[in-house]
Amino acid sequence: DSYVKDNSVYVQNNTSPFDGYYTTMEGITVKYHSHRITLTNNQVNVTGGRNNYGTTVSDGSTNITFDNNKFNITGQRYVCGLQYDNSQNCTAINNNISLFSEVDNNVPLSTNEETISYGIILTAWSNGGTINSTVFNNTINSTSHIGYGMEIYDAGIIRKCALKHGVIGYSVVDSQWSKCEREKTLNYEHYK
C-alpha cells in the first residue's frame, strides 16, 4: 500500500487563462492502473487555469481513497474538486471541497462562457466504468453560474453516496441509483 499524507500542494497558472483556451491544471493526478493508495490530510490548492481539478483518478486505478483532504479550486471557466474516471473500489470520505469559478469581465464576451463547477464526479469516459465507489460525508461549497455538488455518470454500482453538509445538488446519469443511499440531497435529477 502507498500513502500520501500531510502535504500542501499549490498549483498556479501564471499566464492568462485565455492565452491557452484549454489551460488545464491538476493538483494531484492518479493514473495508469494505480492501486491501493490512501491520500489523507492533504491541502490542495489549484488556481489560475481555465479548467482546474483538485484531483483526477483514472485509467483503471483501484482502491484509491481520499480521506480528510481540503481542496480549494478556483478558475475562470471550469472547476472540479475530485473526479473518479474508470476507477474501481474507490472512496471519498470526510473531504472539504471549495470551488470558485468566475468569468473575467475584462475578457471579450465572445470568449466568455458561463462558469461551471463539480464537487465530485464519478464517470466513465472510456471502457471499464467507475464502479463500487463509496462517497460519504464530504463538504462541498461551490460558487459558479452552474454548479453540481456531485455528478454520477455511467458509474455502475455505488455503495454509499450519502451527501451531507452544504451540497448544492447533483445529477445522476445512467447509474444504478436504486443501490445508493441518500441523505439531505437537493436538486436530484436523473438523466438518460
Q: Count up the helices.
A: 0
Task: Give the beta-strand count.
Answer: 18
Shape assignment: globular
| Biggest sheet layout | 7 strands, parallel
How large a portion of the residues is in β-strands, by DSSP E? Answer: over 45%
**Strand and helix order:** EEEEEEEEEEEEEEEEEE
In terms of per-residue confidence, which ranges show pLDDT below 50 for 5 or more consecutive residues? 159-192
Strand order of the largest sheet: 3-6-9-12-15-17-18
Terminal CA distance reads: 38 Å
Q: What value does the average pLDDT take?
A: 76
Determine the structural class based on helices, strands and strand pairing: mainly beta
| Percent range of helical residues | under 10%
Q: What is the radius of gyration computed over CA atoms, rounded to a whole number of angstroms?
A: 16 Å
Identify the notable features of this structure and list them briefly.
seven-stranded parallel beta sheet, single chain, 192 residues
Describe the structure.
With 192 residues, this protein is mainly β. The chain contains no helices and 18 strands. It has strands spanning 2-5, 8-12, 24-30, 35-40, 43-47, 51-57, 62-67, 70-75, 78-85, 91-93, 96-101, 116-123, 133-136, 139-143, 146-153, 158-160, 170-173, 188-191. Strands 3-6-9-12-15-17-18 form a 7-stranded parallel sheet, with no helix packed on it. Strands 1-4-7-10-13-16 form a 6-stranded parallel sheet, with no helix packed on it. Residues 159-192 have low confidence and may be disordered.
